[in-house]
Design a protein that fits this description.
With 244 residues, the chain is of the alpha/beta class. Helix content is 34%, strand content 17%. It has a single domain, classed as Rossmann fold. The chain is built from nine helices and eight strands. A hairpin with a 5-residue loop joins strand 7 and strand 8. Helix 1 runs parallel beside helix 2. It is globular. The structure holds S-adenosylmethionine. S-adenosylmethionine binds next to helix 3, strand 3 and helix 5. S-adenosylmethionine (SAM) binds next to helix 3, strand 3 and helix 5.
């Protein structure tokens, strides 16, 4: 059964304002601003609403360390760096362009309708241009970002010193079922005892596997979907109370 036709999974739906209300409760006497680039015209980035939700999570939990699966142009890496505290560091992973061959010349019709072609297209863009938003950032911001070039499915959290380390983890790398499953398994080991794990492309019209995976995963984990976005997340430890 395709993800689109599947019976609705037991995933809680909330409106974006539920997250914003939590921010208002935490900062009742001040404006809470965030810094963001004009969204890229290329595919593969976040909407402004999605960006504001991710920044809200940062405001709510003040993470020490953030991990991102899928750097791409680095726009969200930069969003994390610019909207967190100076002590916050960000580790972001994407494929190694020197060892990964990517398919070139994929046309728009193909990458907008086929999930595998879409992933190949994004990999190809990354291999050709790298994380341009990080490259163009100020030195002080760049210093807080560590880029890793490695297939995320080959991560060894213990050997790479990632165990129990990250307070916010964003899963937005390869979108096929096995990669999302592997990234999630690693994320659970890499998360601190009080953390938030966020997936992008949930209920995407293109990447059905993220939805299929989370429809399974939610049988044993409490997953929340934010309406009008492709974000789904799980709260760990004391952060389970963050929206109440
Ligand atoms: C949707 S883009 C990431 C977008 C980025 N997080 C943002 O918000 O701007 C997906 C990225 O995942 C990378 N990717 C795909 N498969 C991967 C894998 N197995 N390991 C590491 N990165 C992968 C692609 O090269 C691509 O750059």
């Amino acid at each position: 059964m395709s993800a689109k036709n599947a019976k609705p999974a037991n995933i809680t739906e909330i409106r974006p304002k539920v997250v914003f209300q939590a921010v208002e409760r935490m900062y009742p006497a001040q404006n809470t601003e965030f810094t963001v680039n004009i969204p890229t015209s290329a595919i593969g980035g976040l909407t402004l609403l999605e960006s504001s939700v991710l920044v809200s999570f940062i405001k709510l939990i003040s993470p020490q360390e953030i991990f991102e699966f899928g750097t791409y142009m680095g726009a969200t890496t930069l969003l994390f760096a610019r909207n967190s505290q100076e002590r916050t560091s960000i580790v972001t992973i994407d494929i190694d362009p020197s060892t990964t061959s990517t398919r070139e010349g994929i046309n728009e019709k193909e990458y907008l309708s086929d999930d595998a072609a879409n992933d190949e297209y994004l990999k190809d863009i990354f291999s050709k241009h790298g994380a341009i938003y990080i490259d163009r950032a100020q030195k002080a911001i760049k210093q807080r970002v560590t880029q890793i070039h490695q297939d995320s499915t080959t991560i060894e959290p213990k050997a790479q010193n990632f165990l129990n380390r990250f307070d916010l983890i964003f899963i937005d790398g390869g979108h096929d079922f096995n990669t999302v499953k592997s990234d999630t398994k690693n994320a659970l080991r890499m998360a601190t005892d009080d953390a938030i794990i966020v997936w992008h492309d949930f209920r995407s019209q293109i990447h059905g596997d993220v939805t299929s995976f989370l429809n399974e995963f939610c049988k044993n984990h409490e997953i929340i979907h934010i309406q009008n976005t492709m974000l789904a997340f799980m709260l760990i430890g004391k952060h389970k109370e963050i929206l109440s």
